Amino acid sequence: xxxxxxxxxxxxxxxxxxxxxxxxxxxxxxxxxxxxxxxxxxxxxxxxxxxxxxxxxxxxxxxxxxxxxxxxxxxxxxxxxxxxxxxxxxxxxxxxxxxxxxxxxxxxxxxxxxxxxxxxxxxxxx
Length: 126
What we know:
By secondary structure, the chain is α+β, with helices and mostly antiparallel strands. Helix content is 35%, strand content 27%. It has a single domain (3-123), classed as Gcn5-related N-acetyltransferase (GNAT) (Aminopeptidase), CATH 3.40.630. The chain contains 4 helices and 5 strands; from the N terminus they run E-H-H-E-E-E-H-E-H. The protein has a 5-stranded mixed beta sheet, sandwiched between helices. The longest helix is centred in the C-terminal third of the chain and has 15 residues, at 88-102. It is globular.
């Protein structure tokens, strides 16, 4: 089946929350739902059939009104499923950038991770 990147849907909530907690940020399901409902146009999933295999999400900066943050982006790294190194993360980032422009933002802040591969992912866009 073809992998699809799209805005999160209610049917994705449980899987996306579990995926996010495994790969990125741990938060309660209730906090997750509040955040998704607050900024539904800033939470993207990559699905393969009915399985969430990637997430990308952000929020307006709390420090600067003119900035928006890309809070998390990840793709399933299970080597038996072969989702990494296919451009899924890059494409989710492009979807996120489009959503950010629609909101009128021109600057995206990114988090940091102590991982050379994550740093390289962000730097290749510069």
